[in-house]
Amino acid sequence: MEQLAQQLVNGLALGSIYALIALGYTMVYGIIQLINFAHGDVYMVGAYVGYFCMVHLNLGFVESLVIAMAVCTVLGVVIERVAYKPLRKSTRIAVLITAIGVSLLLEYTMMFFVGADTRTYGVLPPFMEQSFNVGGVLITMKQIIIIGVSVLLMVVLQYIVRRTKVGKAMRAVSQDADAARLMGISVDNTISFTFALGSALAGAAGVLVGVYYNAINPLMGVLPGLKAFIAAVFGGIGLIPGALLGGYFIGAAETLVSGYWSSLYTDAVVFGILILVLIFKPTGLLGSNVREKV
């Protein structure tokens, strides 16, 4: 039982990161039905911004987190305005290819400027290295910070979506963009805000991963980005609660497989989950089938 509890705690921390990234996927898809495959690389950029702030500018964790979120917010808006907005009325395959191109551009632009070597966040503040033994389960301060920051950001996101004017606009555009436009809602600004919000969460996830694993590289966003996409599909892409459920489920599945079997098979199990979901419940656990008139 102690080992199970330990793996679940580890899975909760990892799942929090997947959930933050998955929220960006699911919000963008819910608004414009676009799978933004560059989203994982926005998370990578956030990790590097946090690294630069903490290592070269000697800023604290909170300041670095805020700056990384701000930079990724701007990056998300630029990507949407430059790469996706001109293709708003194009075919989905054209937009999908563009998303893959933006992903590769971010990866190799970062590699050009910083190199392909793995970077470390260096010596972290002493309080981050603390750990606590609770009933035989080891809980590190890094895990507490990751879970706490993630939950806080998710609560703020829910408040924005449910209680603010721009959140109501997001929900209106996701239901019927044409009707929202007729009601005076700026669809373009709402889409840009959605990209900004999702990118900010991805930037926060990048800093949290950098602190947790103390290692970053220009290609670090590829696999976590795919797994976060799987998490969004698992819970029901386009649904914020689905992204949260999928993120924590994938995180727990990874740590349990790694703890009881072998870390070599974690990726295979995650992608196996995706195949099973697509076969038996294509709309995800919380999704529902919608009839479309043709």
The N- to C-terminal Cα distance equals: 54 Å
Largest beta sheet: what is the strand line-up? 1-2
Which of globular, elongated, flat, extended, rod-shaped describes the shape?
globular
Largest sheet: 2 strands, antiparallel
Assess the beta-strand content as a share of residues: under 5%
Mean pLDDT: 91
Task: Point out poorly predicted stretches.
Answer: none
Total strands: 2
Q: Count the DSSP helices.
A: 11
Order of helices and strands: HHHHEEHHHHHHH
Proportion of residues in helical segments:
over 70%
Q: What value does the Rg take, in angstroms?
A: 19 Å
| Overall SS class | mainly alpha
GO biological process, one term: L-isoleucine import across plasma membrane
Keywords: Amino-acid transport, Cell inner membrane, Cell membrane, Membrane, Transmembrane, Transmembrane helix, Transport
Protein name: Branched-chain amino acid ABC transporter permease
GO molecular function: L-isoleucine transmembrane transporter activity; L-leucine transmembrane transporter activity; L-phenylalanine transmembrane transporter activity; L-valine transmembrane transporter activity
